[in-house]
């Protein structure tokens, strides 16, 4: 590889097969159903990381141009998962930094209302609390429970809050414990009809289920769950109609127009160049090259299979497990409405078992799942085979024969 510029190495050489974990040869668990937490890196991810490291090890700064081009390719891939354009994206470390970027750069006026939902993962609450304090906003708390109503979400409380005056509504695409899918299209329409904007934490949706970001003002997502990359790289998508209004309160040397020409020419060192009116002004400083290499590889595998096929597959996996668990006295927290289900299956074990005790028993039997907010959560992805489900059900039956002390 040439030490200067040149093309980035070609993306993914590995082949992903639905229900096959041959790209995860070191995975120690018998069943890894924990993709809503952290995905293990595939061989494709590991090879991409090695390639980036190898190039930098050999060429130092000479590798930069190649991996800069690779990040543009990554944005094309990520944008295609959501019906957006690559220039709508900023690559940022995680969901928190993406939401915080919106919270800090939104064109707030003192007294504006911002709505969050009780029951959400704290990632989608803390940045709005900080913004409320910094910009003197009214923080309105709505309830996720209203979205979970059997038969369909009750958007009445949201409509009432919007009538009371809101500038922005923050919601997750998928609830982290129950897997409930929010009615984003309806919520976006309602917000827009009242002159408000919607900001979505999409980390529990993108990569495993079809996700359409076209009507959404802001979409924040980390890359280490359903996108199957590494911790430390995610993105923010900003609707093209919203970029110009953002205040660049968070910006760095790479946020300006033509930010690097002073590195190559004299008399170009300036501090007054305009900040780019493009989402990537938020990237601001040196990028996470290894994370971007990893994410392109993992998303490349997802794209090979296709998100609709992955979603059909994980739905079948969860359907079978849910049936096996409810037959053994578990309570499923999954909505009965098939149109509002995601990749997550949340359940509670029968008394006297506790969720934590049950997860520990399953872990001893080689089954990885987690226990967020008092829920036993299963989260399979494309490498999970359907014939793993009887393995989990047998492990559950064994745990049930071994009552807690
Ligand atoms: C709904 C939701 N949002 C965000 C996160 C994580 O946020 P971050 O990417 O900032 O670590 C999680 C889980 O870790 C989550 O379940």
Task: Write out the CATH superfamily name of the largest domain.
Answer: Type I PLP-dependent aspartate aminotransferase-like (Major domain)
Order of helices and strands: EHHEHEHEHHEHEEEHHHEEHEEH
> Compounds present?
pyridoxal-5'-phosphate
The shape is: globular
Identify the strand order in the major beta sheet. Answer: 2-8-7-6-5-3-4
| Residue runs with pLDDT of under 50 for 5 or more positions | none
Global Rg? 22 Å
Strand content: 5-15%
What do we call the CATH topology of the largest domain? Aspartate Aminotransferase, domain 2
| Largest sheet: number of strands, sense, barrel closure | 7 strands, mixed
Describe the structure.
With 405 residues, this protein is α/β, with parallel strands linked by helices. It is 35% helix and 12% strand. It has helices spanning 43-59, 64-80, 95-105, 126-135, 144-147, 156-163, 184-193, 240-243, 289-305, 307-326, 355-364, 389-400; strands at 31-32, 89-92, 113-118, 138-143, 168-172, 197-201, 218-222, 234-238, 331-332, 345-348, 367-368, 376-378. The strands form 3 sheets. The protein has a 7-stranded mixed sheet, sandwiched between helices. Strands 9-10-12 form a 3-stranded antiparallel sheet. Strands 1-11 form a two-stranded parallel sheet. Helix 1 runs antiparallel to helix 9. The mean pLDDT is 96. Bound molecules: pyridoxal-5'-phosphate. Pyridoxal-5'-phosphate (PLP) binds next to helix 3.
């Amino acid at each position: 590889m040439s030490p200067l510029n040149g093309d980035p190495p070609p993306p993914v050489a590995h082949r992903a097969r639905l229900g096959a974990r041959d790209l995860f040869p070191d995975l120690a668990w018998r069943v890894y159903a924990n993709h809503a937490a952290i995905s293990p890196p595939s061989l494709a991810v590991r090879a991409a990381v090695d390639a980036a490291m190898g190039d930098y090890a050999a060429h130092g700064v000479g590798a930069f141009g190649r991996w800069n081009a690779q990040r543009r390719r990554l944005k094309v891939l990520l944008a295609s998962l959501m019906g957006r354009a690559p220039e709508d994206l900023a690559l940022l470390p995680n969901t928190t930094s993406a939401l915080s970027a919106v919270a800090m750069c939104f064109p707030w006026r003192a007294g504006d209302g911002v709505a969050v939902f009780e029951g959400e993962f704290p990632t989608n609450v803390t940045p709005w609390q900080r913004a409320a304090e910094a910009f003197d906003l009214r923080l309105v708390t709505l309830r996720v429970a209203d979205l979970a109503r059997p038969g369909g979400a009750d958007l009445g409380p949201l409509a009432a809050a919007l009538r009371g005056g809101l500038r922005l509504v923050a919601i997750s695409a998928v609830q982290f414990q129950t897997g409930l899918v929010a009615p984003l299209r309806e919520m976006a329409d309602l917000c827009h009809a009242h002159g408000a904007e919607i900001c979505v934490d999409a980390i529990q949706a993108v990569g495993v289920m079809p996700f359409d970001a076209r009507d959404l003002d802001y979409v924040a997502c980390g890359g280490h769950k359903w996108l199957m990359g590494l911790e430390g790289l995610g993105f923010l998508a900003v609707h093209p109609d919203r970029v110009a209004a953002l205040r660049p309160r968070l910006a760095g040397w790479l946020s300006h127009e033509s930010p690097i020409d002073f590195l190559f020419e004299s008399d170009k060192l300036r501090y007054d160049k305009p900040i780019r009116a493009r989402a990537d002004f938020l990237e601001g400083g040196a990028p996470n090259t290894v994370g971007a290499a990893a994410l392109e590889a993992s998303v490349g595998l997802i794209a090979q299979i296709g998100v609709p096929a992955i979603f059909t597959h994980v739905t079948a996996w969860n359907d079978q497990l849910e049936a096996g668990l409810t037959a053994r006295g578990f309570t499923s927290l999954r909505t009965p409405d098939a149109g509002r289900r995601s990749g997550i299956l949340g359940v509670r074990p029968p008394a006297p078992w506790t969720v934590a005790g049950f997860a520990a028993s399953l872990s001893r039997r080689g089954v990885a799942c987690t226990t967020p907010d008092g829920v036993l959560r299963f989260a399979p992805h494309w490498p999970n085979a359907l014939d793993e489900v009887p393995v989990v059900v047998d492990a559950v039956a064994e745990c049930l024969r071994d009552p807690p002390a």
